[in-house]
Each structure stands twice: as structure tokens, then as C-alpha cells.
């Protein structure tokens, strides 16, 4: 039994009118954890539990940490999430309400992560937020579900942080015989690590990241995501924080679903397609979701942009 749910695939009239394309939404914002991450992380946690692991350890104060906490609660195994001091009260509360233990340590993520790794015992499984083949296999189920409906997209739009989602989408497309369906990989300007790697044709690490799309703030994408970008049609696209935030607000009006700016980045391309995307008619947008930004927060960011 999987820990994630099968999510709706819906045609979006508002987005189709705005873009002039046929926009279809895979609504993974509706996962019990509020983001697609439960697919891969749920699958990984189930696999580690089968291997005999008795506790899950994470260092993500975002949707990955929340997904690990949800997975642990459903599987009846304890979860420890170590987060840096910068993590919002809201994120900590969302993790705690899933019965996970939250330890606050360090000024930045690498310090929290170092403590998390030092806590690892023999029966513990460390759950990486994006760089694990088990995660990608789990994320790929969203494409299996689309294929099972009989709908075949001409292009797929997806947000990219560390590239776990992109790797899962590409794996799902490949295993359904859709290896030539182009993927539009969207990042915000302050965290465009895939764009930088694709430009250089080698995996590069950014010096720093700066974006309101905190779930996309990875200095470097995983090796697998970069490989996919070199092996199949992948188009990199970069949007401003402003465009991602505007898309969140518009999407809330249009579809009545609140998502993080990370997801807003992908939606921004769907609302305002490039000439390249316009060459395709039926466009599948992965609505990856995210629960760490409130509407107040999104509006404050927008006012400051
Ligand atoms: C994690 C996350 C992403 C990015 O996924 P990666 O696998 O890190 O590329 C995008 N949107 C949301 C809401 C996320 O939680």
C-alpha cells in the first residue's frame, strides 16, 4: 500500500484561456502532506521499513521534513527532524503535528544536517530530500497515473529545486514510453542551478541562493537530474520571484488552491508560455504544491518585490 494518494488530473479553463494552450493540472498539492514529496518519500520510507529500519531522520524544515513526518506517523515509526534556527514556527508546527520530534540546531541547514547525521544509529534511515533513486521511483507514479487516464501530454512543466521531482517525472515519462515528450524545467532566478549546469554542460554548484521559493533553494541539482537534461528533451526556463508570487495569487483565484512560490514558478510559465512552449498544445503542469508559505507571507513578499 502506498502512503500517497492518487491525485486528480483536471483540465484548467482559466489557465488554458490565459495561455492559449490546453493546460492540464496534476494536482499533487492535494497530497496528505500538501506536496508531491509524499510520493517519493513515502516510497523510500516504506522500503527502509521493510529493510528493518526503525526510525527516520531528516534535516528538512520544508515539505520534505513534513512528508517524512507523515510517512512515519502512517507507518507507526518515530521520526526526528533536525532544522536550523531559521525555520519558521509554522513549519515546525506542521512537522510536530505529525507526531515527529523537532530538534532546532545551528544557524544554517548544513549545521542542522551535520547534527542529523551524527544522530544516525544502525536502525535509522536518513531520508534525503531529493537525491535517492527510491524517491525518483516514487515521484514517477504521478506520470503512471496520468498515463492510466489515457491522456498523453505534448509537453510537461515542472519546478526544479534539487531535481528530485524532475528526475521522477523523467523516469515516469520514460517508463510509460514518453521519453520524447519535452519537459520544461522551471527555476527562479535566485536558485537557477539546473539552468547554470545546462549552460555549462556540466554539473555546477552556485555560490549562493536567494529566492522566496525556498523549496527550490538548492545550490546544486542532483547528478541524475543533470543527466536527464542531457539525455532527453529538457528546456530550462527561469522566472523572477515576482512572477512566481503573482502566479500563486492568480492560481488561488482561478483554482482555489494555495501553493508555495516554488510551485508558482512552474505555474508562471503556464500562465505566460514562451514561444518554445507554445509549439505544444496539450501541456501537463505538475502542481507540486507546498505548505510552508501562508497567504499573508505570499502577500508580504509580493509587496516587497
Ligand atoms: C521539494 C519541492 C520542489 C522541488 O523539488 P526537487 O525535487 O527539490 O527539485 C518544488 N516544489 C515544492 C512545493 C517542493 O516541496
UniProtKB/TrEMBL annotation:
Its cofactor is pyridoxal 5'-phosphate. It catalyses: L-serine = pyruvate + NH4(+). PROSITE patterns: DEHYDRATASE_SER_THR. Keywords: Lyase, Pyridoxal phosphate. Signal peptide: none annotated. Residues 5-289 form the Tryptophan synthase beta chain-like PALP domain. Gene3D superfamilies: 3.40.50.1100. InterPro entries: ACCD_DCysDesulf (IPR027278), Ser/Thr_Dehydratase (IPR050147), Ser/Thr_deHydtase_PyrdxlP-BS (IPR000634), TrpB-like_PALP (IPR001926), TrpB-like_PALP_sf (IPR036052). One of its GO terms (biological process) is isoleucine biosynthetic process. Its EC number is 4.3.1.17. GO terms for molecular function: carbon-sulfur lyase activity; L-serine ammonia-lyase activity; pyridoxal phosphate binding; threonine deaminase activity. Belongs to the ACC deaminase/D-cysteine desulfhydrase family. This is L-serine ammonia-lyase.
Amino acid at each position: 500500500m502506498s502512503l500517497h494518494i492518487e491525485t486528480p488530473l483536471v483540465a484548467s479553463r482559466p489557465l488554458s484561456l490565459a495561455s492559449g494552450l490546453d493546460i492540464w493540472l496534476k494536482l499533487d498539492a492535494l497530497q496528505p502532506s500538501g506536496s508531491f514529496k509524499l510520493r517519493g518519500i513515502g516510497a523510500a520510507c516504506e522500503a527502509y521499513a521493510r529493510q528493518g529500519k526503525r526510525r527516520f531522520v531528516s534535516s528538512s524544515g520544508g515539505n520534505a521534513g513534513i512528508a517524512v513526518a507523515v510517512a512515519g506517523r502512517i507507518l507507526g515509526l518515530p521520526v526526528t527532524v533536525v532544522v536550523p534556527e531559521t525555520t519558521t514556527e509554522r513549519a515546525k508546527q506542521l512537522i510536530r503535528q505529525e507526531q515527529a520530534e523537532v530538534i532546532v540546531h545551528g544557524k544554517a541547514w548544513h549545521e542542522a544536517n551535520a547534527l542529523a547525521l551524527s544522530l544516525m544509529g544502525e536502525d535509522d534511515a536518513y531520508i534525503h530530500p531529493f537525491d535517492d533513486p527510491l524517491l525518483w521511483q516514487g515521484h514517477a507514479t504521478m506520470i503512471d497515473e496520468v498515463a492510466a487516464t489515457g491522456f498523453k501530454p505534448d509537453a510537461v512543466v515542472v519546478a526544479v529545486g534539487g531535481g528530485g521531482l524532475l528526475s521522477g517525472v523523467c523516469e515516469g515519462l520514460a517508463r510509460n514510453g514518453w521519453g520524447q515528450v519535452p519537459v520544461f524545467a522551471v527555476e527562479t532566478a535566485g536558485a537557477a542551478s539546473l539552468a547554470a549546469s545546462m549552460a555549462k554542460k556540466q554539473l555546477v554548484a552556485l555560490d549562493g541562493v536567494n529566492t522566496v521559493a525556498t523549496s527550490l533553494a538548492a545550490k546544486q541539482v542532483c547528478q541524475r537530474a543533470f543527466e536527464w537534461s542531457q539525455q532527453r528533451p529538457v528546456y530550462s526556463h527561469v522566472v523572477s520571484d515576482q512572477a512566481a508570487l503573482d502566479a500563486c495569487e492568480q492560481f488561488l483565484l482561478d483554482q482555489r488552491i494555495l501553493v508555495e512560490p516554488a510551485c508558482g514558478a512552474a505555474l508562471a510559465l503556464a500562465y505566460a508560455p514562451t514561444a518554445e512552449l507554445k509549439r505544444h498544445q496539450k501541456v501537463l503542469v505538475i502542481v507540486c504544491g507546498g505548505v510552508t508559505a501562508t497567504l499573508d507571507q505570499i502577500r508580504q513578499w509580493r509587496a516587497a518585490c
